[in-house]
Structure to design on (403 residues):
């Protein structure tokens, strides 16, 4: 006879239900949400448990690790599946939840429980983001209070915010008494925020996987560590493209009969890693200056569908690429050999064509009597990267000016 146990974990107590393979309830009990208490209660049952299911919650990872170390066949049940199954019950209680988990433990899909190291890394990133969000909230409050008296802070850097605010309220004694405590809090939070950031950088510096992921454009220390802590074990994904769906970067779909609707991205999975990849995609599209196949693909989408959709597409593609880099142990390849050769020939041809156009514009300007000083000011060309875009924009702009 096979026996299954379900544990509905709460902060103080855990409801336990044990059933056999026919669904007959064998034992129901409650115990403290501590590994020692749960181990003692399960040992006193004297039943050979085939599986012990826990619904995913904040304490589950800790209890799962301790129960596995004690020799129990513990698994963590996917919370969305558990919610869907328990939603049919008219009364929701911890006892009923434990029954439902126990009766369905045999066919529930077990989810991956991250290692303690990855959980600690993720906690560090959450702590840093929390401090950053609170700093933004306090800064907005300071701006709103000062704006009521006509004082405008502008857009100083975060490290200069407190100094700039104190300069503006120096002669406003009533306002200073109100804002000064907030500025003191901001100063303290800024120092602690820098400490948390340094911890992240120290971890990434000693983690070879994070350094490899940072070879991809747009991926910095925060994105690399968030992805590393979220994925934990890359072999649990059969295909690299499954990572995008795991992080909620694929569109929802509703299909029934002749109806087939694709909606926005699902936004399921880890929100921290999804946000980090989205920010990395924005950096790749807007700030990155080095050409890559990925950036060219994203710019095509941006021209056709808009920048917002391009960010999501790049974030999903980045998730796939980073996972494949991790599995293969390879660095990011900015371009293939064929693409590099084709791109070099196109760059040379475009540079020659745009230079010829610019020379024509300069000759036309001299013919029309433009002074030497005006030429230097109006026809200055700066080369950035390949220089094609800057030359073309300057040439077209100055051609219209001369005409």
């Amino acid at each position: 006879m096979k026996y299954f146990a379900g544990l509905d974990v709460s902060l103080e107590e855990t409801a336990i239900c044990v059933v056999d393979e026919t669904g007959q309830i064998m034992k129901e009990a409650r115990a403290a949400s501590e590994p020692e208490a749960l181990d003692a209660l399960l040992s006193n049952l004297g039943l050979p448990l085939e599986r012990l299911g826990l619904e995913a919650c904040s304490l589950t990872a800790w209890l799962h690790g301790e129960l596995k170390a004690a020799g129990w066949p513990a698994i963590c049940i996917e919370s969305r599946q558990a919610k869907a199954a328990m939603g049919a019950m008219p009364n929701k209680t911890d006892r009923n939840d434990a029954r439902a988990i126990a009766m369905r433990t045999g066919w529930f899909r077990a989810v991956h429980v991250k290692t303690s190291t990855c959980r600690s890394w993720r906690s560090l990133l959450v702590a840093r983001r929390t401090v950053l969000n609170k700093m933004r909230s306090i800064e907005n409050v300071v701006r709103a209070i000062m704006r009521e008296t006509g004082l405008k802070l502008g857009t100083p850097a975060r490290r200069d915010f407190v100094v700039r605010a104190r300069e503006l309220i120096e002669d406003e004694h009533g306002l200073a008494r109100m804002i000064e405590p907030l500025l003191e809090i901001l100063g303290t939070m800024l120092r602690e925020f820098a400490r948390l950031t340094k911890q992240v950088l120290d971890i990434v510096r000693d983690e070879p996987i994070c350094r490899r992921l940072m070879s991809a454009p747009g991926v910095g220390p925060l994105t690399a560590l968030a992805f590393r802590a979220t994925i934990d074990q890359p072999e649990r994904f059969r295909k690299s493209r499954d990572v995008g769906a795991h992080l909620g970067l694929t569109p929802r779909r509703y299909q029934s009969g002749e109806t087939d609707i694709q909606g926005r991205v699902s936004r399921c999975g880890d929100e921290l890693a999804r946000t980090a990849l989205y920010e990395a995609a924005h950096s790749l599209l807007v700030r990155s200056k080095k050409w890559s196949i990925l950036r060219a693909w994203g710019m095509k989408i941006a021209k056709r569908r808009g920048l917002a959709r391009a960010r999501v597409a790049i974030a999903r593609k980045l998730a796939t690429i980073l996972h494949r880099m991790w599995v293969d142990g390879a660095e990011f390849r900015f371009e293939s050999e064929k693409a590099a050769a084709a791109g070099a020939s196109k760059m040379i041809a475009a540079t020659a064509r745009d230079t010829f156009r610019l020379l024509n514009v300069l000759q036309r300007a001299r013919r029309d009597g433009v002074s030497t000083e005006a030429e230097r000011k109006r026809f200055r060309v700066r080369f950035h990267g390949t220089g094609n875009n800057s030359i073309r924009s300057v040439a077209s702009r100055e051609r219209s000016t001369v005409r």
Q: What stands out?
A: The CA atoms of residues 76 and 111 lie 6 Å apart.
